[in-house]
Amino acid sequence: MLQSYRIWNRLEDDMRIIPFDPRFRDDMIYMVLSAKDALGRVPGLNEDLLDVQANYMDTGDMFWLALDENDRVIGCIGYRSVENSTEVFLHRLYVKPALKRQGIGTALLQAAENYLIGHGKTAAHVHLGAPKEQWEESYCFYPKHGYREYAPRLMKKELSGRDMK
13: burial class by Cβ within 10 Å (0-12, 13-18, 19+)? Predict the structure, then answer.
């Protein structure tokens, strides 16, 4: 069953994490492009985000949006299953630039991990960008949440019911 998560960030603004809803597609795309621009990258769009429904939801995988109290997209994350395994790759964890370091990324990651555990997934992988200096936020964020580098640009976390919020 798909569910919505309601949490409070440090600013005590109401934030919901919901399964992808096509009504928020354009706002999500704008948020992702803004996030990339804030990192100093040419803001191109990943093709999978043009049709989240087909690329995630219809394949049996998931994609979530974080919405603020005005139903504006402030973050997102998705995953794709690794074929013939109980492992997944997390994709497209973005947070609206003006709202970084307020717990939104952590909340999205925890919501995804909890969902994965509940659906029998045993490990989550992330593929990070290069050069490392241009992706420093990602290389710092994931280890804080239990991910360990196992190959250049790849990190993994073993999932279990223990120690999950």
Answer: middle
pLDDT at 87: 97
Phi, psi at 43, each rounded to 5°? -75, 80
User: How is the chain split into domains, by residue range?
Assistant: 5-158
Q: How far apart are CA 159 and CA 74, in angstroms?
A: 26
In CATH, what number does 5-158 get? 3.40.630.30
Q: Which two tokens stand for residue 129?
A: 């960008």
Q: 18-31 burial by CB neighbour count: b if 16+ within 10 A, else e?
A: bebbeebbeebbeb
**CB within 8 Å of 65: residues ≥ 6 apart:** 17, 18, 19, 20, 21, 24, 28, 73, 75, 76
Amino acid identity of residue 66, one-letter, is A
pTM across the whole model? 0.87
